[in-house]
Amino acid sequence: MIVGTCEIELIIYEANSLKEKRHVIKSIIERIKARFNASAAEVDYNDLWNRSIIGVAVVSNKKALCESMIIKIIDFIDNDERVEIINHIMEVM
User: Fold this and answer.
1) CA–CA separation, 74 vs 88, rounded Å?
2) What is the rounded distance in angstroms from the CA atom of residue 93 to the CA atom of residue 52?
3) Could you write out the DSSP letters of every residue in the chain?
4) What is the predicted pLDDT for the residue at 1?
5) Contact 66, 4 (CB under 8 A)
6) Based on CB atoms within 10 Å of each CB, which residue in 43, 44, 64, 66 is the most buried?
7) What percentage of the chain has pLDDT greater than the value 70?
8) If phi over 0 gives left and psi between -120 and 50 gives alpha, with beta otherwise, what is residue 37?
9) pTM metric for this prediction
């Protein structure tokens, strides 16, 4: 079993409050879960209204499949105009 994880640090442009931030982050997380069948959650900066870190995990029997899935998820988030990725850390074991 191969597990791929990624922490994706975001700036949220459309958020002016925690409520607006949670709406944007929840939307992104639900779309990741539905489209990629991956686990995702907000893992840091819970009390900041314009920053977030989303943690993503995928499981497969091939390392290349995990890596490609995480790259697709990063690209998917990067195409969302409401946020900007400022850093990501990917690990496949």
Assistant:
1) 8
2) 25
3) -EEEEEEEEEEESS-SSHHHHHHHHHHHHHHHHHHH--EEEEEE-TT-SSEEEEEEEEEES-HHHHHHHHHHHHHHHHT-TTEEEEEEEEEE-
4) 87
5) yes
6) 66
7) 100
8) left
9) 0.90
| The pLDDT value given to residue 15 | 83
Return the structure tokens found at 21.
Answer: 């931030």
Q: For residue 46, is pLDDT > 90?
A: no
Q: What single letter denotes the amino acid at residue 39?
A: S
Phi-psi region of 45 (alpha: psi -120 to 50; beta: other; left: phi over 0): left
How many residues are given for the chain? 93
**Which of these, 78, 15, 17, 93, lies nearest to 54 by C-alpha position?**
78
Identify whether the C-beta of residue 2 lies closer than 8 Å to the C-beta of residue 77: no
Return mean pLDDT, the chain: 92
**Structure tokens of 55?**
């943690």
